[in-house]
Each structure stands twice: as C-alpha cells, then as structure tokens.
Automatic annotation (TrEMBL):
Transmembrane annotation, as ranges: 258-278, 290-310
Localization: Cell membrane
Family membership noted in the UniProt record: Belongs to the CorA metal ion transporter (MIT) (TC 1.A.35) family.
Transmembrane among keywords: yes
Keywords in alphabetical order: Cell inner membrane, Cell membrane, Ion transport, Membrane, Transmembrane, Transmembrane helix, Transport, Zinc
Keyword Kinase found: no
Name of this chain's protein: Magnesium transporter
Annotated Pfam families: CorA
Domain of life: Bacteria
Membrane-related topology note: Multi-pass membrane protein
Length: 319
C-alpha cells in the first residue's frame, strides 16, 4: 500500500497503478509495498527506498545515518499493537522537502498520524516527522497504561483473602509472562524511537525549524518519563511473579503439613493394630467378651487424640 500526503490537501491519497507520480508530495507512507509502489516512491522522492534487510541490520551505522541531505532512520523492532503481533522493522527517510516511511504491518501510531493531517496543516517534512514521532510516543504511553491497568487487576487477583490453589496461581504466573512480553515489545520500540529523537536533536539540520526542535525536546522528555514508568512496571511484574511463587510455596507447605499431621495421627493405631495382631497363645484380650469393640474404640481414640492435640496447638490453622 502506498499512501501519499501532498501539500495543500487535507486528506491523504492511496496510490493505485496508473495514477502516475504525485505533484507535490510531503509524506509518502509505504505499507508492505509491492515493487510498483516502491518504484513509484523512489521516482517521486528521488530517494533510495530501503530494503527490509537494511532496516534489521545490527550495525548502528545502518540504522541511523545521513546520506547527503537525507537522514536514514530505522527501528528494527517496532510493535505498537496491544497483543502478540510480532515486531516488524520501520524505516524513515527524511529530507528538507519530503518524508518517506516504510513499514510492514498495520500501526495505530501511523494511522493516528495519517488521520491528523486534516487538523494539522504540515508546513514541512520535519513537521510531519515530528507529528509521526509524537503519535508513536502517545500510542506507546497508552499501551503502557493498559499494561499498568492489567497489573492492577492481576494484583487484586493474587492478593486476596481467599486461599488460591496452585492452578489459579499458575494462571496468574502465565498472565505475568504475557504482560512482560507486551512490555518487552514496548521497550524495544521505545528504544528505537529514543535513538532517533536523540540523533535528530544532535544533528538538527538547518531545514528543521525551531518549533520542530522544541517538539522533539518535549518528546525526548516524554521518553525519559516513559522509561521511568517502564522501570516501575518491570519492578511490579517481578514483585507479582515473586508473590505468586511465594504463595505456591506456602500452599505446598500447607499440603506437606497436612500430610505430616495425618502420618503422625496414624502411628498410634498402627502400633495398637500391630500389637493385637500378634499370634501369641496367651493373650488376655482374646478372652474378653467385648475385646473387639474395645480394640476398635482404642484405635479410634488413638487417632482422635493427636488430631485434637495438633488443633489445640494451632498447627492446623488455615488448613
């Protein structure tokens, strides 16, 4: 898909084969483009459209660099969807007159920036780039707020007066893992954005207006705030994981305590049954009229007395 924003037009245009080149493009947004769309973007901008392999390169010089008047920027792992979409790379090429973006998945942040063109009449490519970066940061903040809200619900599930069993606590641990995965994707995306903003502020070409520079400075402050918020969420995730493991350990200790009490309570009746089960010729209990009932009563009492003793000592509390 090829989306074209032109000077003076309030709404973007989706390019189709046969339309020809745009007259005054300001922002060209490529979404998983075909060869025809890549060719049109290259001819319209006079820029080399990056390949996907260029965007995922580990070399920092390949991610962020300048080439003549153009700045080539990339985010190797970009994921601004809420759920488990795999991160995909995003490439940005910006000059003094045009902004070119390349992505391979739908993005709420890009959609937000596309929709804002009707409200904000961009004056330059730097203005459009600042709008895009602000949209990315705003969507990231919203995702982190969603993770924080889910953590609050999970905390209420774990720290409840009711005793949770191991299966319920295991589900809580799985939820912690899911939220940690979402936050890890948020973190990787924000790291790429932070590098881009730092690079733009350090270079600040002549064609970047002071207003855009101020907006980028505000974005950089927001990124530092989100980084602190990320640390809080990470600590909260670790705390809930440790709490779940602690409750599972406590639950297992309760089970072991019950088994220990049960085994101790069965020792006296086993001894009595072993004594009366011996085959000696002279055993006075064999001639008792009610010997069988007395033996059963003695065995039952030998079970009840240890249990009552454990209860009196408080060793069965909570079980």
């Amino acid at each position: 898909m090829l989306i074209i924003h032109e000077h003076g037009k309030p709404h973007p245009t989706q390019w189709t084969p046969g339309m020809g080149k745009p007259d005054a493009p300001l922002w060209i947004d490529l979404l998983d483009p075909t060869e025809d769309e890549r060719r049109c973007a290259g001819e319209s901008t006079g820029l080399r459209v990056p390949e996907r392999s260029d965007l995922t390169s580990l070399a920092l010089s390949s991610r962020i660099r300048t080439d003549d008047d153009a700045m080539y920027l990339s985010i190797p792992y970009f994921a601004d969807t809420t759920r488990a979409h795999q991160p995909t790379p995003v490439g940005i090429v910006v000059t003094n007159h045009i902004l070119l973006t390349l992505r391979f998945a739908d993005s709420p942040a890009f959609q937000l920036a596309n929709d804002s063109c009707a409200e904000h009449r961009w004056e330059s490519s730097a203005d459009a780039l600042a709008t895009l970066i602000e949209a990315v940061v705003n969507v990231a903040a919203k995702r982190m707020e969603d993770v924080s809200a889910d953590l609050k619900k999970l905390s209420d599930r774990i720290f409840t007066p009711e005793r949770l069993g191991t299966p319920a606590l295991r589900n809580c641990m799985l939820e912690v893992g899911r939220l940690e995965g979402e936050q890890a994707r948020n973190r990787s995306s924000m790291l790429g954005v932070q590098r881009i903003v730092s690079f733009l502020r350090a270079k600040q070409p002549d064609w970047m207006s002071d207003d855009v520079a101020v907006r980028l400075r505000v974005v950089e402050h927001d990124l530092r705030t989100l980084d602190e918020f990320d640390d809080q969420l990470t600590n909260k995730l670790q705390f809930l994981l440790d709490a779940s493991l602690g409750f599972i350990s406590t639950d297992q200790n309760h089970v072991m305590k019950v088994l220990t009490v049960t085994s101790v309570a069965t020792i006296p009746p086993v001894i009595l049954a072993g004594i009366w089960g011996m085959n000696f010729k002279d055993m006075p209990e064999l001639t008792w009229p009610h010997g069988y009932a007395i033996a059963l009563a003695a065995i039952l009492i030998s079970i009840v007395l240890p249990v009552l003793f454990f209860k009196w000592r408080g060793w069965l509390d909570g079980d």
